[in-house]
Each structure stands twice: as structure tokens, then as C-alpha cells.
UniProtKB/TrEMBL annotation:
Gene Ontology process terms (BP): cell population proliferation; hypoxia-inducible factor-1alpha signaling pathway; intrinsic apoptotic signaling pathway in response to oxidative stress; regulation of glucose metabolic process; regulation of pyruvate decarboxylation to acetyl-CoA
UniProt xrefs under PANTHER family: [PYRUVATE DEHYDROGENASE (ACETYL-TRANSFERRING)] KINASE ISOZYME 1, MITOCHONDRIAL (PTHR11947:SF14), PYRUVATE DEHYDROGENASE KINASE (PTHR11947)
Keyword Glycoprotein listed: no
The protein's Enzyme Commission number: 2.7.11.-
Protein known as: Protein-serine/threonine kinase
Organism of origin: Aotus nancymaae (Ma's night monkey)
Gene3D superfamilies in UniProt: Alpha-ketoacid/pyruvate dehydrogenase kinase, N-terminal domain, Histidine kinase-like ATPase, C-terminal domain
Record keywords, A-Z: ATP-binding, Kinase, Mitochondrion, Nucleotide-binding, Transferase, Transit peptide
Entry coiled-coil feature ranges: none
Family: Belongs to the PDK/BCKDK protein kinase family.
Histidine kinase domain: residues covered: 280-403
Enzymatic class: transferase
Entry-linked SUPFAM superfamilies: alpha-ketoacid dehydrogenase kinase, N-terminal domain, ATPase domain of HSP90 chaperone/DNA topoisomerase II/histidine kinase
Length: 411
């Protein structure tokens, strides 16, 4: 069913633009890659739950095991999404931004394939002469472990700007060729899959680099983290952090900002702080984007009055769900426009000026809400909007509850 759906979508996309879909092999720097993409794309990525991430990272995390898994899993995930990228319409593939994104994926796959025939012990043989001459076995062992980890970190950093760069490519395509409703729907389907793939790949890269990269292990604020996962994530503190940073931006732009009214109810453990097992950066991204939207709507809807109603946030923890509800009085939107707010080709803000192909700002691309929803859905949660036109909007984040890990390893 998945293959049939993909073929239908991309057949429609191809019909939207003239020409034959560009092949990866047309790039001189990607010789040998198409065959590897075809091979690894035959396999489905291995789904990983929060519990699996915790089980691996919290109990005797083994760098060798991580290496053996990632050297197979990462090429599979990269190849699957590269296959889908190659099926995009020719005119979209020709945009400089999409070509840049494609080149990043090609380079990353090539670097990972260097490890496909190597065991975790191969690196030690490379450093054995040094070990013999210098008699510094601990330093040599450290160097051995860093070979693959350095590659993982390099790939992670290379892909930092994938979201805004792909966004710019879609804008270039839309401005040059226009987009009809069918094409828009199919591009939406592709981008949801593409960005969810990026989130999942980045999660793997972050877990390995943070567990075995050696940096940040001594940081008091992250000492209890399992990679990027906080076993005791204080939800209210993350929300306050997101509010303060969004408020600074609002103050810079509007010279004022709405206040925050924050309430919480721990129905599972009354009287206790609301803490769950989660990735703080994911939660922060969601609430930060929602605060920016709520502040902008509030400031513009009440600009004539000069009095700005507060943004109300209520957090509840139940047996199954952690729920964060953010309510603003920014005027709301009609029901027929709710779905558009999650469309990558729709934004109520002016398009940002793009000075370079890298470090493109997200503001104005309309990607805040759809990407935030993907973050929520990644660990079986969701993000929904409920609007009262003329009054305001409620944004609700649902997160699947995994209770904090007590007495977790602090080393």
C-alpha cells in the first residue's frame, strides 16, 4: 500500500512539471550512489520507541553495538528518502536549494558506506602502530572510538539547514511554475515524510554523538540525560524557557509583548511537579513556535487598543497523556483555514529575504506549525488547533506519557 501510494503521488507530481525526472546519476559527484540507493531502499527503517532509546542508552550503552546498528540503519533511512527525492518533478529538482539538499544526502550516504564492510575492531588496527610506539593505550582507544562518531557528528552538522533550504527550494519552484491544489497536496505529502525522516535520522545521530562523543558529559544540566532524552523532563520549565525567548523576539519587533498565565494539574501524582521522559529540544521547539504565533496574532489583533491579553497555558498530566493547551485572544481564524495553517505552502507572515542558501530563517516560511506537529507525532503524540473566529485560538499538544526514571545513572 505504501508503494502504491508513493507511485500515485509522484506520478501526479511528475505530471505537474515538464521533463523527465532527474536521476541521481546525472551528478558527476554521485557515481556509484544510485546502485547503493536502490539496494538500501529495499529495506524498511527499523521503528524505534522511546523505551528502546532508553533501554539502550541507560544500561551499559555500548558504542560497538551502536556502531553495528547505525552503519546499517542510517544508509537505509537515507536511501529511502533519497529515493523519494529523486521522484520529485524535474523542475523542483533543478532548483539550486533542492540540489544542495540532495548533495548533502549523497555525501552523507557515501561517508557512511565507507564503514559497511568494517567491523568495530578495524579502527584499532589502524592505530596499533601508534599504540606500540607511544605506549599510550588509553589515548589510542579513545581515538579508535572517535572515528565513526566523528563521521556521525559531521553528518549531523552538515544537515543542520535541511529544513529551511528545502523550504526555499519549494518557494523557488512555486514562484517559477505555480502550484495547483493537487500538486500542493502531493508536495505536502512528500514534505511530511521528508521532514519526519529528518527528525528520525537526527534523533539517531544525536543519541550516538551525545552518548559517545565525549562532549557535554560533564555538564551539570545534562548529566542525567540519556543522549538527547531527559528522563525527568520538567515540562513547565521548558514552557517558561520557550515563552521567554519568544517574548524577546516579540519585544524586538512590537516593542511590547503579552504576559503569560501558566497553570498546571498533575492528576497522576497530585502536588508533584509535572515531569515526563521526553526530548526537551522537541518540546521546546513546539512551544516556542506556538508562542511566536500566539504573540504575533495577539499583538496585531489588539494593536489599536494598546492593551494585550495574556497568553494562557495549562499543563495536565494524566495516566496516558501529557497535555499542553495554549490559548490566545488573537482573533482566531475561520474553520476553513485551519488546515491551511499546517500547509508548507501557506503562511500568514511576509516571506523572509534569503541572503544565502544556508542559515535561512524559518519565520515567514510557514513551517513552524507543520514541523511542530511532526515533532509531536514522532513519539505517538499530536498537535491540534481549535479556533474561535473573532476571539482566539487554542493550540493543544498531546504527548504520550512515559513516567520519569528514578535513580537514573548520573555518570
Amino acid at each position: 500500500m505504501r508503494l502504491v501510494r508513493l507511485l500515485r503521488v509522484y506520478a501526479a507530481l511528475r505530471a505537474a512539471g515538464p521533463g523527465v525526472t532527474r536521476s541521481l546519476s546525472s551528478d558527476s559527484g554521485s557515481r556509484g550512489v544510485p546502485g547503493q540507493v536502490d539496494f538500501y531502499a529495499r529495506f524498511s527503517p527499523s521503528p524505534l520507541s522511546m523505551k528502546q532509546f532508553l533501554d539502550f542508552g541507560s544500561v551499559n550503552a555500548c558504542e560497538k553495538t551502536s556502531f553495528m546498528f547505525l552503519r546499517q540503519e542510517l544508509p537505509v533511512r537515507l536511501a529511502n528518502i533519497m529515493k523519494e527525492i529523486s521522484l520529485l518533478p524535474d523542475n523542483l529538482l533543478r532548483t539550486p536549494s533542492v540540489q544542495l539538499v540532495q548533495s548533502w544526502y549523497i555525501q552523507s550516504l557515501q561517508e557512511l558506506l565507507d564503514f559497511k564492510d568494517k567491523s568495530a575492531e578495524d579502527a584499532k588496527a589502524i592505530y596499533e602502530p601508534i599504540r606500540t610506539r607511544l605506549q599510550v593505550s588509553s589515548l589510542c582507544s579513545m581515538a579508535c572510538k572517535m572515528i565513526f562518531t566523528d563521521t556521525v557528528i559531521r553528518i549531523r552538522n552538515r544537515h543542520n539547514d535541511v529544513i529551511p533550504t528545502m523550504a526555499q527550494g519549494v518557494i523557488e519552484y512555486k514562484e517559477s511554475f505555480g502550484v495547483d491544489p493537487v500538486t500542493s497536496q502531493n508536495v505536502q505529502y512528500f514534505l511530511d515524510r521528508f521532514y519526519m525522516s529528518r527528525i528520525s535520522i537526527r534523533m539517531l545521530l544525536n543519541q550516538h554523538s551525545l552518548l559517545f562523543g565525549g562532549k557535554g558529559k560533564g555538564s551539570p544540566s545534562h548529566r542525567k540525560h540519556i543522549g538527547s532524552i531527559n528522563p525527568n523532563c520538567n515540562v513547565v520549565e521548558v514552557i517558561k524557557d520557550g515563552y521567554e525567548n519568544a517574548r524577546r523576539l516579540c519585544d524586538l519587533y512590537y516593542i511590547n509583548s503579552p504576559e503569560l498565565e501558566l497553570g498546571e494539574l498533575n492528576a497522576k501524582s497530585p502536588g508533584q511537579p509535572i515531569q515526563v521522559v521526553y526530548v526537551p529540544s522537541h518540546l521546546y521547539h513546539m512551544v516556542f513556535e506556538l508562542f511566536k504565533n500566539a504573540m504575533r496574532a495577539t499583538m496585531e489583533h489588539h494593536a489599536d487598543k494598546g492593551v494585550y491579553p495574556p497568553i494562557q497555558v495549562y499543563v495536565t498530566l494524566g495516566n496516558e497523556d501529557l497535555t499542553v493547551k495554549m490559548s490566545d485572544r488573537g482573533g482566531g481564524v475561520p474553520l476553513r483555514k485551519i488546515d491551511r495553517l499546517f500547509n508548507y505552502m501557506y503562511s500568514t507572515a511576509p516571506r523572509p529575504r534569503v541572503e544565502t542558501s544556508r542559515a535561512v530563517p524559518l519565520a515567514g516560511f510557514g513551517y513552524g506549525l507543520p514541523i511542530s506537529r511532526l515533532y509531536a507525532q514522532y513519539f505517538q503524540g499530536d498537535l491540534k488547533l481549535y479556533s474561535l473566529e473573532g476571539y482566539g485560538t487554542d493550540a493543544v499538544i498531546y504527548i504520550k506519557v512515559i513516567m520519569p526514571i528514578l535513580n537514573c545513572n548520573e555518570t
